[in-house]
Amino acid sequence: MEVRWGFIGCGDVTEKKSGPAFNKVTGSKVVAVMRRNGQLAKDYASRHGVSTWYDSASDLINDTNVNAVYVATPPSTHARYAIEAMQAGKPVYVEKPMAASYAECQEMLKVSRETGSPLFVAYYRRTLPGFLKVKELVQDGRIGKPLMVNIRLTRPALEVEANVNNQSWRVDPKTAGGGIFYDLASHQLDFLMFVFDDIVEVSGLTDCMGGLYRAEDTVVANFRFKSGVLGVGAWSFVTGEAAQEDVMEIIGTEGKIQFSGFGHSPVRLITPKGVLEFPCLNPENIQYNLIEQVVEAINGKCQCVSTGETAAQTNWVMEQVVKD
Q1: Cα→Cα distances 44→49, 50, 104, Å
Q2: Across residues 109-137, what is the average pLDDT?
């Protein structure tokens, strides 16, 4: 069947990362968009050739021409909109993190099971060639037995984070679930669980060291995967320019794999034989590969690699790290 999407939320992420891909994927079409500000919804619909717009999520969900829903709002409303859409019998693709809390994730999963409406989450690194190359190198034994992973992500605060008079929702825990850690580390942790299975033990320390907002801005964590691999991570979003870093490493008995979480620099395989590099060849709209898989899964043609079941564990891990 043709999957006819309605977007709840049509902000920045939908402009290029995701939105256009829904029309490029075979058997997929955007037929309606919604934003609380109706004029902004109308503008988006006009610019992207969408026939219908709403300022009410319920109106979009109950549109009989919409048979699948993309929730692209801040995390605090993911559960509410996803649950309403699933109760209306419509598959849901929701932005990451899956929700603002692990408890909300569990409620979403409960409704998905009760209604039979599938639930997918936008952890698209699971489908990008560079990240799939990382997984392939591990599975092929190119670094021997994997021992540990190491994450380092540091950068200065962005202007929209530092401006106390007009701050991004991403640094408001009530809206985002946490701070920038929730927004960015969720991608990294989810991908590593794609490679090594669930994180089953985790502890962390957090602080608001920059004093720019209420959410944590500096985080360290230790964790263990179900596979036995150990992990450490350090994140700070208030450093100086000179301290900026975006490095993920998988270290094994015979070498290591080094790659970036967000810079999409070449994947580096480092062994006694030397260094090999593999390019990250991303689609124009970076969520395209996952959206294509979601459409095929809705039509029963494949199993999607990023579901509510896999994504909820990422929320659990982050919650263990930042809890008091």
Answers
A1: 8, 8, 29
A2: 98
Tell me the three-class secondary structure of 100-143, residue by residue. CCHHHHHHHHHHHHHHCCCEEECCHHHHCHHHHHHHHHHHCCCC
Question: What's the CATH number for 129-281?
Answer: 3.30.360.10
Q: Which two tokens stand for residue 81?
A: 């909109």
Alpha-carbon distance values, 61 to 34, 67, 70 (Å): 10, 8, 10
pLDDT at 324 over 70: no
Q: What are the two backbone dihedrals, phi and then psi, of residue 162, each rounded to the nearest 5 degrees?
A: -85, -15
Of 68, 15, 83, 76, the C-alpha closest to 304 is 68
pLDDT beyond 90 at 165? no
1-60 confidence digits (pLDDT tens): 999 999 999 999 999 999 999 999 999 999 999 999 999 999 999 999 999 999 999 999
CA 282/CA 269 separation, integer angstroms: 19
Distance CA 171, CA 274 (A): 42
DSSP state of 307: B
CATH label, 3-123+286-306, candidates 3.30.70.270, 1.10.10.10, 3.40.50.720, 1.20.1510.10: 3.40.50.720
Average pLDDT over residues 65-89: 98
Residues of the chain with CATH 3.30.360.10: 129-281
> Which contacts of 286-289 are long-range, i.e. CB under 8 A and separated by 24 or more positions?
286/17, 286/18, 286/124, 286/128, 287/17, 287/18, 287/21, 287/122, 287/124, 288/21, 288/24, 288/25, 289/124, 289/127, 289/128
Give the single-character DSSP code of 201.
E
pLDDT for the residue numbered 178? 95
